[in-house]
Amino acid sequence: MFYFADAPTLLVELFTGQAAFVAYAFIGSLTATTFIFGGFMQEQVCTYMCPWPRIQAAMMDPHAIDAHSQGILEYAKVKAMLAGYAASSLGRSAIGTLEPMTRFDLVAAAVAETSELRTVLQRKGRLPMAGMTDVRPVVAGEEGAASIIEPHVLRDVRNTLLGIEYLWGAPVILETSEVQSINRDDDEPDAEPAVKWQRVRYTMKDRKLSRGLI
Q: What is the reported pTM?
């Protein structure tokens, strides 16, 4: 009430009985509603008028956050905005799989991970994430996609292991399968080539990458 008029003048007028009728009416109505809601309708106000219990119930109900609710909350737009801040394809891929959490233990674990990452950022500064790429196809070593490893793939492996070593704080080892040779039969051009595989180990230590056979 004092926001809409000169506070010192209105205060004096209220105690001297010279204030306008609307001032007394406003104070009386506010006092009455506060007394009624706080004194006689405590549970009813919390149940039917306060939005927080409904929001809390929706967050804890595993069936409440359905596709319709996600559409109203624009969950897809939020993930798209978050993906714009990702520094690597791995981050964007992880963001694409995010779903709302309804279990308390999972939420607590996610909050703990966020707090841990914040501590890492404070101690080490910006993380070298820009060079990290998805090297899972290389690690899988599927024979259906047999080919001699290219130099740019080795560069991606190095950059990814370098970022992991920085985060992990210790040497990183990656074991995978690579094509050693591909032999084609000139007499039978339509036949499947004979592919020879070999197991290799990549080690990132002190920002240096080494490669050895297993």
A: 0.45
Tens of each residue's pLDDT in the chain, 214 residues = 777 888 889 888 888 988 888 889 988 999 998 888 888 887 777 777 776 666 666 555 655 667 777 777 788 899 999 988 887 777 888 898 888 887 888 889 999 988 988 887 888 777 666 667 777 766 665 444 555 667 777 787 888 888 788 777 889 888 887 777 777 777 776 767 777 888 888 898 888 888 888 8
Triad 100, 120, 156: Cα angle to 5°: 80
Determine the Cα–Cα distance for residues 206 and 162; give it in Å rounded to an integer: 9
Nearest-10 Cα torsion for 102, 104, 110, 111: 120
